[in-house]
Specification:
9 strands; globular; Butyryl-Coa Dehydrogenase, subunit A, domain 1; Butyryl-CoA Dehydrogenase, subunit A, domain 2; alpha+beta; Butyryl-CoA Dehydrogenase, subunit A, domain 3; 13 helices; two-stranded antiparallel sheet
Amino acid sequence: MFFALTDEQRALGDTVRDFLTDRFDLTAVRAVFEDAAGDGHPTELWKAVGEQGWLAVCVPEEYDGLGLGILDAQVVARALGAGVVPGPWLSTVLAGEAVRIAGSEAQRAELLPRIAAGDLAATVALRGAGRGWGADGVTVSAVPVAGEPGGEAGGALGALTGAASPVEYLAVAGLVVVAATESGTAAGAAGAEGAAGSGGSGGIGLYLVDPQAAGVTVEPLTSYDGTTRLAALKLEGAHARRLPGSSAAVLEDLVRRGAVLTAADLAGIAREALTRTVRYDQERIQFGRPVGSFQALKHHLADLHVAVTMAEHAAMYAAYAVDAELDDLLLAVAVAKAKASQAARDATAAMIQYHGGIGYTWEHETHFFYKRARRLYGAFGDPPSHLERVAALTIDTVAAADSSAATV
């Protein structure tokens, strides 16, 4: 099957790249990168992001969005990765997806137009420090608040306790979507307001938390990647509204969407790193010849081109699989995140090496790409975890089928 982006999707990518070239190039990125005490959230850039509609891609039209999907959002993510652009675009889009998928009509009407316009920066806190990406990684618990039955208008009120870390752009977010485990009582209350039931044995809920609310503590964390800002979220009985449609399955869906958009960001990093490396090695002369003409470099760069191209197409197909809810979407997402992480790691490492001595200096931009690629390598699952899933969905499935057939 032939599969490619539409003319409109390619135009969207070109628009984002052209805008960044004109108004937020690597000089602007360096200013954010080197301002360790700053919030990493350039105001003028964020205003432009809202005006350009990049936050509205997945927001339905009835809430002032573009009504598109993850396939279109990954086009934006790839361009932002290529520009190593700071800011809470990804975290805000994911928070918006949580509200769109699991929120009540009142919650959607209140929050989605603000997200689409760039009036509300948001983030997601889905796991504890060093934990997995899924229900088993959640380290916040929720109990219902007495006398608050909730309902469709605003979601049941819960008290959250625990911690999540690291959380991107928590210090600038006006809203945090927090994943929390629920007791049987909380799960029962959630079921009463229309959430996926858990049989009274507890489950997972997604809650809307105001970072300025009582019982919420934000502790900044250091990061070697200056294109983001990280913090730990600590909750001590903080009150939060539940997204009525949330469940463990919705959390898994949200993580898949995060994995696809992160894979696209990594693919953008990898392509830009490779493009800059090839350009430099065509211009750098050694022994009277461009170093890019040497066989060892030429063959390695060709191999990297193949790997990056595969990562780009894997991310694109995974986004399509998520939008279309294809049967192989789990496999597609796992392949995309694993391939993109590996391609970005290898392309940015080669970028440093093949730029020679200048590539190892702080003054050169190579480390922007390398550090962002290393940070995102494990975001929403590292390659080993995704490759294990690939094996489980392919080799293990075939082996089980063969065993069943042999038994019959």
